[in-house]
Amino acid sequence: MRNLIAMFACSCVVLGAGAANDPAAAAAAKLAASVSRPASAMVPSKKDEPAPKKVEPVADKSSASEEDAEVELSAKIAQRLAALRERQQARATAAARAKKFADAKRRQDEQAAAAAAAIAAAPKHGTVWSYEGELGPANWSKINVDWAKCGTGNRQSPIDLRDGIKVNLEQISFDYHPSSFSEVNNGHTIEVTVGSGNFITVGNTVYELQQFHFHRPSTPEAFADLFRAHVPQPRR
Fold it and tell me: Domain limits of the chain?
């Protein structure tokens, strides 16, 4: 095979020399020369090729840093959730405590209101009164159930008697003696409690004097500006 190629090359050289001035012959000689070139000359040798560089595996530092960041982020999220749950539990506890306190306060208020209503509905038997303030004339009917007329009546007591009527009454017999006594000024009345042994007789009925008192200041409207005190009808 090599001999054939050599012969073909020689013939091409001869043709090339003869056709130096012929373009077509020159082209044919060039083609023959390329064909006659050994195959080893046409194929590059492996020795001439650069040896491939050995690629050594490099540690993926970026992947490791990303994993560390993810772990750190997960830890922060867990801490945040724990703090949120703790605050939520604290708010729930505070709300429950506030509700418990409000319920207790409501029950206490209800009990106090019920007690006040019961006291208000209960019959009154007070004996302390005054000419002004909370225990004044506007509230006398509320102090004692026996004083209800003070709120519904339309007459003043004592009554201012201006014009008398002559009548025939039974004779009053007095049997009074010097006696011991005690005096109490309660702010609106001067009460004098008398010792025993003093009587009056009206008809066939005997009455023992127990006490008499002065209203101070005077209660009748007609005499309020004239007298600082007056003596009401003695209690018998």
Answer: 2-41, 87-121, 123-154, 164-236
